[in-house]
Amino acid sequence: MTMLKLAKDKLKQIFGFDSFRSFQEDVISSFLSKNDSLVIMPTGGGKSLCYQLPALIFEGLTIVVSPLIALMKDQVEQLKDLGINAVLLNSSLTGEEYFENITQLRSGEAKILYAAPETLMKPDILDMLSSLKADALVVDEAHCVSEWGHDFRPEYRAISQIRKKLKNAVCMALTATATERVQNDIVKNLKLVNAKIYIDSFDRKNLLLRILPKQNAVSQTLEFLKSRPKKSGIIYCFSRKQADSLYLTLKEKGYSALPYHAGLSSLERNKNQDMFIKDDVQIIVATIAFGMGINKSNIRFIVHFDLPKNIESYYQEIGRAGRDSLKAECLMLFSYGDLQKIRFLIDQKNSEDEKRIARNHLDFLLGFIESKSCRRVSLLNYFGENYQTENCEMCDNCLNPKEETVDITIAAQKFLSCVKRTGEMFGINHIIDILRGSKSQKISNFNHHNLTTYGIGLEFSKNQWRHLARQFISSKILLQDVENFGVLKITPDGYDVLKGLKKANGYIEEEKIAASKTRAEDINYDEPLFNLLRSKRKNLADAASVPPYVVFSDKSLIEMAAYFPQSLEAFEKIHGVGENKLKKYGDTFLAIIIDYCRNNKIAKNAG
Prior knowledge:
The chain has 607 residues and is α/β, with parallel strands linked by helices.
């Protein structure tokens, strides 16, 4: 039997999945052939399976480098529930637990080890691992290795030293977000050999993206929550003070909510996070300190009460919703006042390079917010993906009737001409300063006051020009290199506009972003049965001290409540039901389904 055939058998037998997603099969096949690889796959896209499945087939140990204790703990709990022997090494363990895990590693019982890079770099741990047969080294959240990534961690640079000790181990790096520059950094720093790079679509089709003008943020949030009772979600706030204030308001209104931010003690943060993961509380009101490593699959909404700091943070944060592939909503409340908070934080950075990169990232986020076209176009373009669907039907701009555009060809020609005459070497603000006849020192230094485009754009304010420039980028007549000073380049379409061969349409004034309609998507399942199954799942999870989604995801429960399986054979066909879960939970959940069908006179295999 080939290793890939064995992997396909174990996919259903252990994990309960009928088929691979996207290019999982290609990644797994390459990894089993001991090829180094970089895997870029959106949050909830199935990255973990790419190394967990091969780990069961490799003879030796698979070592997973992970940045957070919560992430390690979550993964180990889920693997153990599947009957896979995984261990972790970190500061959360008692001395006895640590010794037991070391014993399992030395004896070869453990198939997968999760640890932070700092732990793996300890001389005694490195020596032990060098003496074991390690077949694979997996670097999760690999963007942390790059200074150009949004979450750089210096300790990740030490991973290449760990590789030297594990000479026969194939290496896989995984991340949900990486621009081309970050990808190159990962390959170089981890010393990936002839690395195969797999980039999945960044489109999370099940996420509904909406942006509303922030008017009364508390009232807007309460209105949003009112129509989503008992749904699990995260509300992100800019500051600890705001998070605490909103949490108290929600608590007063009777919502099941808890706060999470760096101002709380470590004990309280861990307790609140644990309650959220275990469905003991429905809503977490958090700063950006919360979420990385949370694998809770039934998060149904994300609310950005305040502006996220950049497009990558936004993508990571909304990516925590809908990991079970069911529909989830992502709402951002936006005001231009919030921009000043982010700009103030940027100004506190020590390095001019850091400030420049952060400002460019913020500009791109603003372009995404102001765009009148499909939200997915600008969001996915940032990650280098050319999204071309005419109407995604899952964002406010596609669901709402469009405002009428006007001809902005003359404005575009002025802007493009200025970009051309300055050698395509400058960013948005400098071009606007030239168009508006600024007397700044930078203009004088480059003699740009002598250009024919100097002072020809006084009909628009700075903000209006910025708004227009972001439309030019969104409509692809200009390219902006975010990681290279925000330099603007004219595209072939841009040259057509410049020469008068093509028109440009858009919006002159900065418009408010209109409220969007939510598309109703009724899933055909029996809700009372779903609630019974959910209640049983919660009881079983509490008894085992694990999060409910470790027992079954919402998607599994919905299928049970839609297809009414009444035999072990039928139950095994449900999404997420593998050999271990069938033995462990099959009879229990079948009894509830059969009893419910009998009491409600539902025919076998209805739905």
